[in-house]
Design a protein that fits this description.
This protein has five helices and five strands, in the order E-H-E-H-E-H-E-H-H-E. The protein has 156 residues and is an alpha/beta fold.
């Protein structure tokens, strides 16, 4: 049965495991969206204020270069993931890639996207240390606990 599937995606091994899982476990007529929330460090590129130190202004251009590079890396990783889905039997026109600037937080942005008609969210489990995960939680844990009206699959 065809579904609308959201894969929150970064360039990690865990995200690629989620892509592989979708390729194996879901009907090939499903619609898949690879979705990345881009952290908003790009705002540093446009930040101009008299209070800024000379050191920051000198380093500011490097932030801009890093932002462009980070987006290129993500686009390349998404192309690889899309290729893996196509290789597993999905048609190219069934796979969307979306890179969106962070609006209210990575988990909240994923939840907002998932509430726009998706049946299932498939995401990799993040490998935080036990203590760090206890205090901060992971994105997958936050999505899993807060999701409403959508199935969430966390791939280990």
């Amino acid at each position: 049965m065809a579904q609308k599937i959201l894969i929150p995606f970064d360039d990690s091994e865990n995200a690629m495991r989620a892509v592989s899982y979708v390729g194996r476990a879901f009907a090939k007529d499903s619609q898949v969206t690879l979705f990345h929330v881009l952290q908003d460090t790009a705002a540093l590129c446009e930040l101009y204020s008299p209070e800024l130190t000379d050191q920051f202004v000198d380093q500011q251009s490097q932030f801009c270069v890093l932002e462009a590079k980070k987006k290129q890396i993500m686009e390349a990783a998404m192309a690889t993931a899309k290729g893996a889905l196509i290789e597993s039997g999905f048609r190219e026109n069934q796979i969307d890639t979306v890179i969106e600037m962070k609006k209210s937080g990575v988990a909240r942005d994923i939840l907002a996207r998932s509430s726009t008609g998706y049946d299932t969210v498939v995401m990799g489990r993040r490998g935080l240390s036990g203590i760090r995960e206890f205090f901060l939680g992971s994105v997958s844990q936050k999505v899993f606990h807060a999701a409403k009206n959508v199935t969430v699959v966390v791939v280990n």
